[in-house]
Amino acid sequence: MLNAMLIDPADNVVVAIEPIAKDSPVEYDCGGETRRLTALEDITIYHKLACRDIPQGEPVVKYGQHIGSAVTDIRAGQHVHVHNVESHSTNV
Amino acid sequence: MTFFGYERPDGRVGVRNYVLILPASVCASDTTRIVAQQVNGAVTFNNQQGCSQVESDQQLTMDVMAGYAANPNVYGTVVVSLGCENCQMDLVVKAIQERTNKPLKQVIIQEVGGTLKAVDIAVRYAKEMVAEASLLQKKEFPMSELIVGTECGGSDPTSGLAANPVIGEMSDRLVKDGGCSILSETTEFIGAEHILAKRAASPEVHDRILEIVRRYEKALRLVGEEVREGNPSPGNKAGGITTLEEKSLGCIHKGGHSPVMAVYDYAKQVKAKSGLVIMDTPGNDPSSVAAMAAGGAQVVVFSSGRGSPTGNPIVPVVKITGNKLTFAKMEDNIDLDASPLIYGEKTLEELGGELYELVRQVACGRQTKAEALGFTEMAIARVCNYV
Lengths: 92, 387
Hints:
The structure holds 2 protein chains of 2 kinds. Chain A is mostly beta strands. Chain A has a single domain, classed as Archaeosine Trna-guanine Transglycosylase, Chain: A, domain 4, CATH 2.30.130.110. Chain A has strands at residues 4-5, 13-16, 25-30, 33-38, 48-50, 59-62, 65-70, 79-80, 85-86. Chain A starts with a strand and ends in a 6-residue tail after the last strand. By secondary structure, chain B is of the alpha/beta class. Chain B folds into 2 domains: 18-134, 3-Layer(aba) Sandwich (Rossmann fold), CATH 3.40.50; 142-372. Chains A and B meet through strand 7 and strand 9 of A and helix 6 and helix 10 of B.
């Protein structure tokens, strides 16, 4: 059963559309093909998790756009939120 | 598609038929509350401004007052002022008459002899106006007569996934039918302004979109603050929104895919039948909705992932959520559930069509959840502190 959503093929995060428990499968659609990974943490419904490894300093991409930068290395399956992302313009 | 509404002498079409008891300042606001309580069919609001303001700040208040009186959902207006405030009666009346020729009465508390006499006179004016308003028969009009404001508040990631795209689809349909849709909330263009600017219908509109974003950020820096301080809010973050850029990218879906035809300053009169336009408003919902109502919107569509109850004194506010848990918990507050889009149970076209039909029904008189609860909260944007 699909339990996550990829909004844009360029995205490196997916959105959990059901609560996802640690170590359980994450399934999402990418252009008609179901892709799978394993959640490395509990993911609250509608929160984001990485669908690819995101190295520290690299952009976090959602809606095909940069929404911030990874402040630490983020592995595929990890929760992506305020603890490991910062807004690009925070200190403009 | 058509709806049944009230034709006004200035040529505009209302979807409600209120008499507005308009307080010219904070010092008249309790008086207008008492007046409106005495007259079935009258509405008012608590105006916290109207005095002790610098010019640019007072202009925002004046534009909201004039715009409310001119909004076609209002049959006529009784302006009540204290008498000594900065928003003097003659200025308020002039601002209203620049926008509309609808019925207008004035009561100045200090001139008529105090609160009780002012209440007596204003109640009698209002009762007479309500009686006149009740004689109006609705007529059939095309959807192109509608100006629909769009808003998002208490957002979460489902706003960008479902509720806002559904609003965008509704907006595109309204624009295609010749109407006007207003995209608002400048603070929530930040990080997505380049996408909106690319959709501008002219180089002037392109530059104006970028300008209102820069102007907003600059205004906050002048007082040593950063727009990201309170944005995303704690509720946005608890819901899963991480950065302002992410919130903005979800927010701008409300504008659908139509070209942006114009950019309006806060609460200025919007030209009907003009397609998709932007109004420069704060992300704060009651003050953004107030600006669009002042601009002439007859209906506002408002998405909320967390579940916002807010309404407006003169404009029906339609609530929509993309969060299935929020809809289950707050069905008393929310008119439409857009979450089937996320789960593949309905298409964007289906839900956009449902929302468009709901807007049409609300224009015909269907009560929104916020109206049924009697919610009329609003705010007026500020430039700076009182003087």
